Amino acid sequence: MDFAGAYSGEFLVFLLDGLWMTLKIALISIVLSFTFGCLIGIVRYARVPVLSPVLAVLVELLRNLPLLLIILFSRFALPDLGLQLGPEGAAIAALTVFEMAMISEVVRGGLNSIPKGQIEAARSSGLSGVQTLRFIVLPQGLRRMVPPLVSQFISLLKDTSLATAIALAELMHNAQIIIGHSYNYAIPVLLLCAVIYFIVNYVLSLLSRRLENKMV
Q1: Are 6 and 177 in contact (CB under 8 A)?
Q2: Of 29, 70, 115, 205, which is the most exposed, with the fewest CB atoms less than 10 Å away?
Q3: Contacts (Cβ under 8 Å, ≥6 apart) of 212
Q4: pLDDT digits (tens, 9 = 90+) for 169-188
């Protein structure tokens, strides 16, 4: 083990570049997957004719496919269909599509957890279906969604490491390049990567707890 060599200034900067790419694609994917996931979850909750069953099939298909397969498909198969994506674009597209399906189920479950009595009371008081969803169901459902949503976001952040399969210069990809210089760097570099992932995910967990407490 060569900690001094592995933690040289050049290698640390290289790892930080990889961390920046990891955080970048994770943040973009979180925003996009949350947006589309919420829309799909609400549509399925509302049981919109035709659209809801189609989305249900799409969600089940995506949830039961390996994320690595979707990443490889985005990078190497989409160009044959006329959509050329670089490693960064392919990773974002794959993570968004996969996590969108997961988040839509979290959203649908959160909305379905609201007691039917509250919905019936809101409708009987004169609120429309949209108003009931906006003022009664969504505010309560969001509080219940926070823990599973954060767990999903943490999983997404960790799943960015799979993008090393398409040579995306994220944290684990850069770590592998450093290890390639010398196997004596393997343990120091992997330990540092583990610490980085732990710190980022732990901070995200703390923020979610604070958010959950404020929403109670």
Answers
A1: no
A2: 115
A3: 143, 146, 147
A4: 999 999 999 999 888 999 99
